[in-house]
Amino acid sequence: MGEAPAFFVDHLENGHHTNGFGVKSEDRDTSVQIGDRSYVIGGSHEGNPLFLGVQIHDKTTNKWSSPTVLGTGPKPCKGYSAIVLKHGRILVIKKGSASDDSIWFLEVDSPFVREQRKLLGKEVVAWSKGVRGNAEKPIVISGPSGVGKGTLIAMLMKEFPSMFGFSVSHTTRSPRFMEKNGVHYHFADKTVMEKEINDGKFLEFASVHGNLYGTSIESVEVVTDSGKRCILDIDVQGARSVKSSSLDAIFIFVCPPSMKELEDRLRARGTETEEQIQKRLRNAEAEIKAGKSSGIFEHILYNDNLEECYKNLKNLLGINDDAPVNGVEVEGINLPKEHTVTKIEDKIMIQETGEATKNNMIVLDLASINGGAPGRTRGIVLDTVKSS
Ligand SMILES: Nc1nc2c(ncn2[C@@H]2O[C@H](COP(=O)(O)OP(=O)(O)O)[C@@H](O)[C@H]2O)c(=O)[nH]1
Ligand SMILES: Nc1ncnc2c1ncn2[C@@H]1O[C@H](COP(=O)(O)OP(=O)(O)O)[C@@H](O)[C@H]1O
């Protein structure tokens, strides 16, 4: 898909037009055209006033459709500017919104959306909030049951509580003694979880040791929004799905020193029945093989001596004793309530309008944006050009 020409900002003419659902679009709706399709952004999603609506009009069939909308999108507001970017994204700028909620990307044909469309077998679009600066990449940690993933992650979160946040997965397995719902896992009913997977609420999911596990899009967004670096403890199948998404993570596989040691650790943990231990050990061999040879993981760690392994983990994450470790500051983007938007190459010019205007212009440089749905689009550079 080619990039739209500059100055491509299109508000619906006269603001009123009846769509295929018999719903009147209001004058705060905004539409953009990509090929034969118009994407109309405005109103609410499926009658829910908390979610901004997205509808698609196909010129060739003259039909309207309501796509499945993935990710937590912007809350509806008074008006929007929308502009087509390359790689199947639409930049949506909210008028008169809070500074941490002003810049959004609606992905209509990104690799993530294409993948989800195939998976769910229906029309899909996905929201991703735009943030300034570059947060560190999320971390995916995989490895066989009992190798020490949870232990290593707990050490990292304890030492650097403001830097790392854990993506709390959903699972249909029963909670272990000491495991808390919403902290270690969201313990879920199978039917409910399957429905949510069908509704596109999950970034990835897999059947592991006879239970369903999955990472919801929201669980990743919650961590990213807190300015922390997201850690995902997921199996190899899940890691493969994340690898093909736009999450742009670091992939680490943890190996045991031997199968005998793995078995001893699983038994010593005392959380599984003998039958479950046997199942996990059977699966371990295939997981280790896949972990080492699949090309998914750029780092393999051996967890023999725990302290040494933890030190190696910190090293590969770029944490050493000399470097200060802090959370990432989440900076907002303050935009004028009334404005016009124009685009020249990767730069978006936001010009204040209205009576009390000082004619200052805000420039968003999108040349280095990265990440995207599910999660946040990072790397927006912001500049203010003052009128002389
Ligand atoms: N694909 C996927 N795997 C997960 C998820 N959450 C946990 N897992 C994996 O499921 C497996 C079993 O996890 P768990 O029952 O907690 O047992 P443990 O690994 O022995 O602590 C591990 O390999 C986890 O990495 C998830 O959201 N998605
Ligand atoms: N390097 C290590 N040496 C000995 N025991 C370990 C080591 N790492 C972890 N353990 C222990 O092994 C058991 C399994 O670790 P855990 O973190 O629960 O594994 P996972 O999350 O990969 O299933 C726990 O009882 C933990 O205390």
UniProtKB/TrEMBL annotation:
Gene3D superfamilies per the UniProt record, alphabetical: Guanylate Kinase phosphate binding domain (3.30.63.10), P-loop containing nucleotide triphosphate hydrolases (3.40.50.300)
Annotated catalysed reactions: GMP + ATP = GDP + ADP
Cellular component aspect of the GO annotation: cytosol
Domain Guanylate kinase-like per the UniProt entry, residue ranges: 136-318
GO molecular function: ATP binding; GMP kinase activity
Entry-linked Pfam families: Guanylate_kin (PF00625)
Top-level taxon in the UniProt lineage: Eukaryota
Matching CDD domains: GMPK
Keywords, comma-separated and alphabetical: ATP-binding, Coiled coil, Kinase, Nucleotide-binding, Transferase
Coiled-coil blocks: 267-294
InterPro entries in the cross-refs: Gal_Oxase/kelch_b-propeller (IPR011043), GK/Ca_channel_bsu (IPR008145), Guanylate_kin-like_dom (IPR008144), Guanylate_kinase (IPR017665), P-loop_NTPase (IPR027417)
Signal sequence segment: none
This protein's name: Guanylate kinase 1
